[in-house]
From TrEMBL:
SUPFAM superfamilies: CRAL/TRIO domain (SSF52087), CRAL/TRIO N-terminal domain (SSF46938), Supernatant protein factor (SPF), C-terminal domain (SSF101576). This is SEC14-like protein 1. Residues 167-216 are annotated as: Disordered. Interacts with RIGI (via tandem CARD domain); the interaction is direct. Interacts (via GOLD domain) with SLC18A3; the interaction is direct. Interacts with SLC5A7 (via GOLD domain); the interaction is direct. It comes from Callaeas wilsoni (North Island kokako). Residues 500-653 form the GOLD domain. Signal peptide: none annotated. PANTHER family: SEC14 RELATED PROTEIN (PTHR23324), SEC14-LIKE PROTEIN 1 (PTHR23324:SF51). May play a role in innate immunity by inhibiting the antiviral RIG-I signaling pathway. In this pathway, functions as a negative regulator of RIGI, the cytoplasmic sensor of viral nucleic acids. Prevents the interaction of RIGI with MAVS/IPS1, an important step in signal propagation. May also regulate the SLC18A3 and SLC5A7 cholinergic transporters. Residues 198-210 have a biased composition (Polar residues). The gene is Sec14l1_1. Gene3D superfamilies: CRAL-TRIO lipid binding domain (3.40.525.10), GOLD domain (2.60.120.680).
Length: 694
């Protein structure tokens, strides 16, 4: 199917033509390598093409098909402007190790722009845009040719087997690894989760005792009881993601039900699910969300005027949450509490929802992973469209969407007034498409008719304010007295108090603008400790010492970059005129930290003075092959600077008189925490003052 896109492909308009420049076939026809020169019509501004002096761009593509190993490797690089721009791409089709009927596809690429007539930024955006577009169309194109083959009656290609003549020759002059005879794989063995290798072993040596049951299958009863119906592929994704977390994540591992939510939110694309799950776990750690049910005590204002609460369950056994939004004074709550208090309260509601789902799973004997929300809009008016209130609502939706995917089973919106379409227009773009499909909206008293509330909730538990017989203990809301309003300064201080219960701080790191933290040491042999997560990008971590204090940082340290950093601060302390080795010295070897890694460590100080912890943007070597940025990041890079990293950190100094540990107990360690982190490597580098181990 892949070969059918040559010599040209109508589904790829920019692919104009291709010529074969080199071809090789092995004698046994197992290996077929073909090299082509491809002509591309890049969608670039006419002015740029005129300046560059070209109408078309040429790439060289080498396809290596190995029928013996059942692999197809594709390599491509640019021929045009190769002295100015270096593009390398690698794709591979392989057989899934656990199921030989599945094909795995992997793709990576690197882009290095050395110079391009002063249009480097424009070329980067064009390249990213074209590449993103091609990635999205890749699956569509291969499926098109697969369908074409099916229409021609080709639905199966027999497995390659070595020719007889080739066997005899190889046995005399060119010894090769013996080929196992083809055997029929029993369907029962496949269902039991045996790999190809295991099936061959058990078939050829029936007398040998088999190894224990491989740990790559979930118990069928467990799946049915707690997870629901899963296809073999979905089950495999869950096992692989859970195993990856167990190997790389040092914190609390989420339960299978929660991991499954993130997989479902990304249609079981394991890389995308792993990305958002890792970001969510970092967020939970930063804000100590795991402890929110034990530590969060809602202020009295919320208890009196927040018109929402849990109310039994729906017909499917899902916990039911009732929100009387029309009766709630959102403006008054924001003015009295601030955004952060409302956000934390909503987080506690979601955490309670997760707990209730677990309880209902046990009660009803079937998996219940989401809840139903009933929103009554009677009383909704223009007051609810107060801008800061809508802003707070959008922020809450954004946080919930990112960290509690697939937890909303159904949303019933009742008694929607005329002003509702205005609110919906503001809010709907921030809601995931899958979530929007779960919305049912009723105007007026339509919820009482056919297809209404009775289809989803038992008559006995319909709340009294909706005409039912069940007393609902949800507060009625009402206007928040203005005497409870707080000034902007009070709210700001309260927000800081609420969210800095976490000991971590956030910082942004830009290319050419590292983030630096100053620590003054009075007594030698004190211990500086650190704990940080790399939330975005790759950084280099350094520790410096200076006998003199650096100048206070300028307030507008990012002014030269014209970049604001709402998600964290950026402070630069080391003066540009300072010279390393003269004005300050490096006391630890630089530590390269990849996106998603969690790093903890410490340093025993030798001298008093000023120590500077630095997080610096890490630039890859010019010709290094790097992973292709995530599609979302590529799109974002067209609008914002791509040279930006984020870290979340905590530092502390332990005085020498308080320190009772040994030198070897002070280690700096990594834990891989994203799809960009490679398998944890093991190396160590010891110093007389501290130890760093990866």
């Amino acid at each position: 199917a892949y070969e059918r896109r040559f010599p040209t492909c109508p589904l790829i308009p920019m692919f104009v033509a291709s010529d074969t420049v080199n071809e090789y076939k092995s004698e046994d026809e197992a290996v077929h390598v073909i090299e082509r020169r491809c002509k591309l019509d890049i969608d670039a501004p006419r002015l740029l093409k005129k300046i560059a002096g070209v109408d078309y761009v040429y790439f060289v593509q080498k396809n290596s098909l190995n029928r013996r190993e059942r692999t197809l490797h594709i390599e491509a690089y640019n021929e045009t402007f190769s002295n100015r721009v270096i593009i390398n791409e690698h794709c591979s089709y392989t057989v899934h190790p656990d199921n030989e009927d599945w094909t795995c596809f992997e793709q990576s690429a690197s882009l290095d722009i050395k110079s391009f007539f002063g249009f480097e930024s424009t070329v980067e955006k064009i390249a990213m845009k074209q590449y993103t577009s091609n990635i999205k169309k890749g699956k569509e194109i291969i499926e098109y040719y697969l369908k074409q083959l099916e229409e021609e009656g080709i639905t199966f290609v027999p497995r390659w087997t070595p020719p007889v003549a080739c066997k005899s020759e190889s046995s005399t002059s060119h010894p090769r690894r013996p080929v196992s005879p083809a055997i029929n794989i029993p369907e029962s063995a496949t269902k039991e989760g045996l790999s190809n290798k295991e099936i061959l072993t058990t078939s050829s040596s029936p007398s040998e005792p088999t190894a224990g049951t491989p740990d790559d299958k979930l118990d069928a009863d467990y799946i049915k009881r707690y997870l629901g119906d899963l296809t073999p592929m979905q089950e495999s994704c869950l096992i692989r993601l859970r195993q990856w977390l167990q190997e790389t994540h040092k914190g609390k591992i989420p339960k299978d039900e929660h991991i499954l939510r993130f997989l479902r939110a990304r249609d079981f694309n394991i890389d995308k699910a792993r990305e958002i799950l890792c970001q969510s776990l970092t967020w939970r750690k930063q804000h100590q969300v795991d402890y929110i049910l034990d530590t969060w005590n809602p202020p009295q204002v919320l208890q009196d005027y927040y018109a929402g609460g849990w109310h039994h369950h729906d017909k499917d056994g899902r916990p039911l949450y009732v929100l009387r939004l029309g009766q709630m004074d959102t403006k008054g709550l924001v003015r009295a509490l601030g955004e952060e208090a409302l956000l934390r309260h909503v987080l506690s509601i979601n955490e309670e929802g997760l707990r209730r789902c677990e309880e209902n799973t046990k009660v009803f004997g079937r998996p219940i992973s989401s809840w139903t929300c009933l929103v009554d809009l009677e009383g909704l008016n223009m007051r609810h469209l107060w801008r800061p209130g809508v802003k707070a609502l959008l922020r809450i939706i954004e946080v919930v969407e990112a960290n509690y995917p697939e937890t909303l089973g159904r949303l019933l919106i009742l008694r929607a007034p005329r002003v509702f379409p205005v609110l919906w227009t503001l809010v709907s773009p921030f809601i995931d498409d899958n979530t929007r499909k779960k919305f049912l909206i009723y105007a007026g008293n339509d919820y009482q008719g056919p297809g209404g509330l009775l289809d989803y909730i038992d008559k006995e538990i319909i709340p009294d304010f909706l005409g039912g017989e069940c007393m609902c203990e949800v507060p009625e809301g009402g206007l928040v007295p203005k005497s409870l309003y707080r000034t902007a300064e009070e709210l700001e201080n309260e927000d800081i108090k609420l969210w800095t219960e976490t000991i971590y701080q956030s910082a942004s790191v830009f290319k050419g603008a590292p983030h630096e933290v100053l620590i003054q040491i009075v007594d030698a042999s004190s211990v500086i400790t650190w704990d940080f997560d790399v939330c975005k990008g790759d950084i280099v971590f350094n520790i410096f010492h200076s006998k003199r204090a650096p100048q206070p940082p300028k307030k507008d340290s990012l002014g030269a970059h014209s970049i604001t950093s709402p998600g964290g601060n950026n402070v630069q302390l080391i003066d540009k005129v300072w010279q390393l080795g003269c004005d300050y010295s490096m006391v630890e070897s630089p530590l390269i930290c990849k996106e998603g890694e969690s790093v903890q460590g410490s340093h025993v100080t030798r001298w008093p003075g000023f120590y500077i912890l630095q997080w610096k943007f890490h630039s890859m070597p010019a010709c290094a092959t790097t992973n292709l940025p995530r599609v979302d990041d590529v799109l974002a890079s067209l609008q914002v600077s791509s040279h930006k990293c984020k870290v979340m950190y905590y530092t502390e100094v332990i005085g020498s008189e308080d320190f009772r540990g040994s030198m070897t107990s002070l280690e700096s360690s990594h834990s891989g925490f994203s799809q960009l982190s490679a398998a944890t490597t093991s190396s160590s580098q010891s110093h007389s003052s501290s130890m760093i181990s990866r």
